[in-house]
Amino acid sequence: MSYESFVAAESALLWGAFVLALVMGLVVNKTNFCTMGAVSDLVNMGDTGRMRAWLFAIAVAVLGVAILEYSGLVEASGTFPPYRGGNLLVAENILGGLLFGIGMTLASGCGNKTLVRIGAGNLKSIVVFAIIGVIAYFMVSPFPGSDQTLMSLLFYDWIRPMSIDLGASQDLGYLLGGDAVATARLTVGLVLGLALLVFVFRSTDFRGSFDNILGGLVVGVAVVGAWYLSSNVGVDTEDGFMSLSGYYEEWDMLADSDEGRPAQGRPLAPQSYTFINPMGQTLGYAAGGFDRALLNFGVMAVFGVVAGSLLWALIARSFRIEWFSSVRDFVTHVIGAVLMGFGGTLAMGCTVGQAITGVSTLALGSILTFAAIFLGSALTMKVQYYRMVYEDEASFGKALLTGLVDLHLLPERFRRLDAV
Predict the structure, then answer these.
(1) How far apart are the C-alpha atoms of 31 and 51, rounded to whole Å?
(2) Of the chain's two ends, which shows fewer C-beta atoms within 10 Å, N or C?
């Protein structure tokens, strides 16, 4: 997908990102694809339907990236964000994932679901979006008149030294492949993806659910489609095809003026869908007076999901204005949004950005984040449930220990409340 000018090529990237996100937002609303709901159904009711839909999306993304990368049609290294970075950010992946999992449970949904709910008329989600956006923005952008970010002030000095240097890359293909990295990435991707497919479709209930199949399929295909799009859009120069990020680096030599030049080059790298950092980018775009230079893939993804969800809500006549039911409901959502903002930025993604997009690159950090998000969400649900059932008898500590026992993370002797 080569274009004669940078502006035309970038426009193709942005509109492609918007269209894919619009389809995803529409289908997610229609099918009720929800990662927080998947954890809730599994933990509270033993229903695996939506969890299998999530795993189906992961399987589709893993298989798609494995095959397309081996064929030279997708670039899954040197991405934005750098999923395969050589430093495994263990503490950031785990702590960020836990915070995000807790936060999405308190705020009634992950980043993607927050956008879907906005499109369907949920005003509570606008508050959640704004809080996440502010925190995500200042986690990576300096405060006005300063060179300090929330990340540098609160986390960097103590959390970054806990990272582990794994060499050139942290993906499973590189770590297991030795000299045959390309073949190893294909092999690991095929084995993992097919194993997930077998597990997912072993369930007759899942096979009989059109919505679960459609939701998982479309989300997975959208992630792969975005990888393909962002890896192949470029500019036709005198020296041949040049990627958008490559052109940006050589801007002064290739362009006649700064007209059409983006504010940053990193968001031009190959990427796919994630929603926490883009919420910050979207607020930055609005605060910057909707400057075209601040418009990027992530901002268009946010707009696309909201628009797609709104479109389905209008088609299905399900658009409903919803506000907080009480002060407690407001406070709970605010706390959840704060945790999601910090956690999603620390972990470098969310239940889509890390657990689907990141895992599709076979990055070890993405897998760690996925596990931490699941644990944080599941444990929060357990604590909430026990405290609701036992009321005054269930202190936070008792509910926490019992929840850990229920999740088979502690032996039975640590149980403090009878199972319900």
Answers:
(1) 13
(2) C
Q: Which domain holds residue 217?
A: 2-414
Tokens 């008149």 locate to: 145
ω into 81 cis (within 30 of 0): yes
Helices within 291-326 (DSSP H only): 297-315
For the chain, the domain total comes to 1
pLDDT digits 0-9 by tens, 129-154: 999 999 999 999 999 989 999 999 99
The answer to the question of residue 420 being in a domain is: no
> Beta strand 164-165 with 2-3: parallel, antiparallel or unpaired?
unpaired
- Across 104-118, average pLDDT: 94
Note the Cα 202 to chain centre separation in Å. 27
* Letter string b/e over residues 210-244, b meaning 16 or more CB atoms within 10 A of that residue's CB: eebbbbbbbbbbbbbbbbbbbbbbbbeeeeeebbb
pTM above 0.90, yes or no: yes
State the sign of the Cα–Cα–Cα–Cα dihedral 303, 305, 306, 308. Answer: positive
CA 240 to chain centre: 34
d(CA 199, CA 194): 9
89 domain residue, yes or no:
yes
